[in-house]
Design goal:
Elements (H helix, E strand, L loop, with lengths): L11 H17 L5 H29 L4 H7 L3 H32 L2 E3 L7 H15 L6 E2 L14 E8 L6 E6 L8 E4 L6 E5 H7 L1 H4 L7 E11 L13 H12 L4 E7 L4 H11 L7 E4 L38 H7 L2 E5 L5 H12 L3 E8 L7 H11 L3 E6 L7 H13 L3 E3 L6 E2 L3 E8 L2 E9 L11 E8 L2 H15 L11 E3 L3 H17 L5 E6 L5 H12 L3 E6 L16 E6 L4 E2 L3 E4 L6 E5 L5 H5 L1 E7 L3 H15 L5 E3 L19 H10 L16
Parallel strand pairs: 1-6, 8-9, 11-12, 12-13, 14-25, 17-22, 19-20, 20-21
Antiparallel strand pairs: 2-4, 3-4, 3-7, 5-6, 7-8, 10-17, 11-15, 15-16, 16-17, 18-25, 19-23, 21-26, 23-24, 24-25
Helix pairs in contact: 1-2, 1-4, 2-4, 11-12, 15-16, 18-19
Length: about 700
Amino acid sequence: MDRVKVVPLINRDISWLAFNGRVLQEADDKNNPLIERMRFLGIFSNNRDEFFRVRVATVLRMSKIGKTAEKLLGDDPEKLMSKIQKMTIKQQESFERIYINLLKEMEAQQLFMIDELHLDDHQGKFVKEYFHDNVLQTLVPIMLDSTLEFPYLKDKSIYLILKLARNKKKPRYSLVEIPTDRLSRFLVLPSTDEKKYIILLDDVIRYCLDDVFSIFDYDTIESYTIKLTRDAELDIDNDVSKSFVEKIARSVKRRKKGQPVRMIFDEAMPDDMLIYLKNKLKMHKEDSYVPGGRYHNFKDFIDFPKVGRSELRFHSMPPVDHKDLAGQRSLLKVIKQKDVLLCYPYHSFLHTIELLREASIDPKVVSIKITLYRVARNSSIVNALINAVKNGKAVTAVVEVQARFDEEANIYWADKLIEEGVKVIYGVPGLKVHSKLFLITRNERGEMVNYASIGTGNFNENTAKLYSDLSLITADKRITNEVASVFNFYTDNLKKGVYRHLVVSPFQMRRKFLALIENEIKNKKAGKDAYIYLKLNSLVDHDLIVKLYKASQAGVKIKLIIRGICSLVPGVEGLSENIEAISIVGRYLEHGRIFIFCNNNDEKYYISSADWMIRNLDFRSEVAVPVYNKELQMELKKIFDTQWKDNTKARILDKKQKNVYVKNSTTISVISQDEIYKEIKHQKKHPDLPTKLTRKK
């Protein structure tokens, strides 16, 4: 089985851009409601911004280290940048086409996006009043010709650069930041008929520029939008006098002033102004300057206002109560009887919050331990932990302060938890703690009984409404005792623990999954049934891809559902013809990870916090948990099978990266996310559990 010599791989950055192309397809898909398509433009734009801040910045940094960069990136940095540039330009052309078409479709629905030049007198008066009441006091115009150094431009912010002219005198220039951090990007104007009008904050400011610069008495004021993207890499110094948290906080501040990697500008900007900006910003690569339209930061379109008929937005799919938890007096008692699998966003995240609240006041509960990677802004999870401390529980929170773009928020929450008496552990030196765990320990008649949650997503009630994730809640000692060992490792990094059930990185996750694939190869060679079904966000790891190729060569049937990056090339004759791969992009972000191995028809099931990437397997603390309960195994299989049958939101993953939709094999459209919701909504309660709690009136 050593036939895999030359390993065909798709570059991770190119594959990621193809994924974002699938997001852009959602904006172009007329089966999606109109307002939601506008929001997909925002998601696409936000994704692309992060791509430039992280991945493009990395490629540019790597280009300075010579041949080693090609090994690390899988491609020559300059060639890779050229491919990235071509793909982003092509996607931007599609973006602009889609946006123009959406505006036309909105007009057919009596919804109009207008600029400052098309306001009538009534609308103009309203905009002026809104500007003076809400906007003017937030603006800080900077006169550029009176400043020795060009002012610092914040990452992800948008600015108007202004040319102020009077008679034939030399024009002056000014810079104004558009305050989208304090005000909505959208202003819905009052209407006297069925038509709805929306104006962007950019154009509200443009309409009132005479009021901003009234003391100068200029004849004309020209305005053009610019936006800068900066390198988002953290540069953590080695100052031994500083704590790790202080170093993170300091490096986050430095990130905000990271090197510029891209400037987007209004292509209508005069050449002299563009040359002036290039000289001031000192960005040397010509391809770092990207011409665009009048508006930037389309990420704000994620929050496009709710206007028009309800049919212009997704139909309501409110989270449902879990069939075994709904109305129960004690969730801990239910979990003591059987394992529970929560599937977000279809199930209500309130169950997790209620479980922690119950633990916080239960006199028999002695301790709660939890990992926190990203939490909600007003976190009910954190409130439950604080309540537990106040009720005398020993509470430990492992807070990962290196969670990208959430470092500041996590430092804030860590400080708050410490103030309230929670024991806070700042991750593990050299590893990111990316596991999704909590452990409740209860004194039951002198015996310490553990209850654990092991999942694929963060303890975040906001993202739980948007991300599809899985969480196993169990009192199975085989699992809970090993979850306790993971927390012991976080407390004392010398106590790595022994894991016979959990699969824990960086200790044995890579080795375990290689062995499970190898087992399928051996079974197939022995004439037994063999298959592997994987649902992941990203599949990049070289060793695991090679092993999957070998499994395919042996005849093992492999189905892959990969939302984002997929470096594996399916369908190559003699190598991967037994591998099929699809990607699903829909109203929810696919985030759950499911691994199913045939195992000679005694299937093994896992859910995991980890993707199959080097960083997850070797440089993070991750946990995959086996699902032993047969009923829950069938639920996972049903989820996978339903997604595999998707013929509406599924795209074929292949070498060409064309994002071709899976063809309809029937006349019935299958949208897997809708089907999974229906299935969960109509699940029957487990017969051995108590009936729902009937509250006294």
